[in-house]
Amino acid sequence: MWVSVRANVRVSSAARRSAREALQIAVRAGGFSAIVVVGMAVFGVALLYATFYVWLGVDSPDSMKVTDLPLLLVGYGFGASFVALFAQLGGGIYTKAADVGADLVGKVEQGIPEDDPRNPAVIADLVGDNVGDCAARGADLFESIAAEIISAMILGATMAQRCKIEDPSGFILFPLVVHSFDLVVSSVGILSIRGTRDSGLISPIEDPMAIMQKGYSITILLAVLTFGGSTRWLLYTEQAPTAWFNFALCGLVGIITAYAFVWISKYYTDYKHEPVRLLALSSSTGHGTNIIAGVSLGMEATALPVLVISIAIISAFWLGRTCGLVDELGNPTGGLFGTAVATMGMLSTAAYVLTMDMFGPIADNAGGIVEMSQQPESVREITDILDAVGNTTKATTKGFAIGSAALASFLLFSAYMDEVAAFAQLPFKEVDIAIPEVFVGGLLGSMLIFLFSGWACSAVGRTAQEVVTEVRRQFIERPGIMDYKEKPDYGRCVAIVASASLREMIKPGALAILSPMAVGIIFRILGHATGQPLLGAKVVASMLMFATVTGILMALFLNTSGGAWDNAKKYIETGALGGKGSEAHKAAITGDTVGDPFKDTAGPSIHVLIKMLATITLVMAPIFL
């Protein structure tokens, strides 16, 4: 946030000179924030690992084994999840309540443009972009990376122990090395986007999305090379000389999966492609058809990502399983670690993807500054182009985030089962949903996702009502606002959304934190009463499994439909189907308003929710036994 609020004024100034220069400043500002976020996640885990290693005297006589050390880091992932949930939930409520309130009164009732300084909610809307996108998405991916590093370290240590590998440190430290290289390769990709000054003239540029994708392609290519080198360096073992190559292929599967998620999200949310154009066309026949088309598009858009993630998990599991590493009984043991390596591959370009996300609110705020300072139309056209690209990059980042959340949750689920087995000294390798109590746990998990989403959206609705009431009051009591004779009270709207977002996030946040603990404790008591010591752990495992599956589908639906509604409106504003002020545009504004809490509050919060459920169960596993 510190960077974004300082960068947006520089971007708006650069747009007066050159569109490419504005793009470069926005990307590099987002890149700085992204590098800091990923760097902090890696540094935090590395520092804790090194501290515990020295403090506990690991591998000295009568001390902890190095393979048990990663289990002590689980609390770090839980802390990251806890903060990320409230940052995303509170930030999402803040930004979308302000946005919806500003649009309903400003655009629909008063007919004034977006980001018009006469709108009392405009400052709250622009501040909300930084809170909901920069800060919240940074916390989301920080949590993803921290959870993935820790779970991969646990699985690597477990596999090394089972296979009797002499020096397991390579398997444990591998995730940290991969993400350290991420900082380097993403920096190269970010710096590959260069700007030009055009002697004060506004020049059209090639598609900004194409420029950013070129940088992403460079990042991916470098990530493949560094990932292959890291696997050969750290995962080579004489027990299975070719295992490192299988794991390198697992990483390649993850990198391809990340690219596929970015491409699929772009296809369904960019107005250059057919789905969004058809959605815009549906607006020409009214508000209802726009809503129907948006909902159906979101549902349809769940299919391809689920197929991609399914293929990735199975491919990585079998590549790991056939790597040649076996336990004392000759059973292959590399399957789960192969999936962990694929997750690392997917997140090996996380810093660049986060850059693309943070680019969005910076460009959006720059457009607001240009509008409020009444710059020439040609300057606003440049910031509008960057803003539309920012909407697409934000949608692609959400697709990337849900894919990484799915893989990370699978790893955390496996780590949870291993931890329960270790604490209980009983085998715990499968969850049988034919057992009534376990099936009920699954139902509760799916219900949790829907209830959480409903509460998150209703929180936006209630807060937006307060904003609408305040904006209407100001227009009535200060009629000079519309003629620029009176200044709106921007601070009042900011205060309303700030206090309301803090108040409204308590209920859904408490639901997410307390539900798994309550279910685990209740069924633990029931299990001990009926002679089933693992019943509590099994029911929680079922709850986690169903919540993850339902959450992935729900988040994909909410993110994609919301992003498509937004860009359908942007497409009409380019002059298509009657342009601004037409009936199609009014219908598209309705769709965009409905989609706002979908794509920026409930959807992104579910990413965090499913990872937090996994980390809570991992941390609280002993109380379920």
Automatic annotation (TrEMBL):
UniProt-listed Enzyme Commission number(s): 7.1.3.1
Topology of the protein relative to the lipid bilayer: Multi-pass membrane protein
The signal peptide annotation in the UniProt record is none
Compartment(s) where it occurs, according to its Swiss-Prot or TrEMBL record: Endomembrane system
Q: Which GO terms describe its molecular function?
A: diphosphate hydrolysis-driven proton transmembrane transporter activity; inorganic diphosphate phosphatase activity
Out of the domains of life, which is the source?
Eukaryota
Main localization (coarse): membrane
| PANTHER family reported for this sequence | K(+)-INSENSITIVE PYROPHOSPHATE-ENERGIZED PROTON PUMP (PTHR31998)
Provide the protein name: H(+)-exporting diphosphatase
What species is this protein from? Aegilops tauschii subsp. strangulata
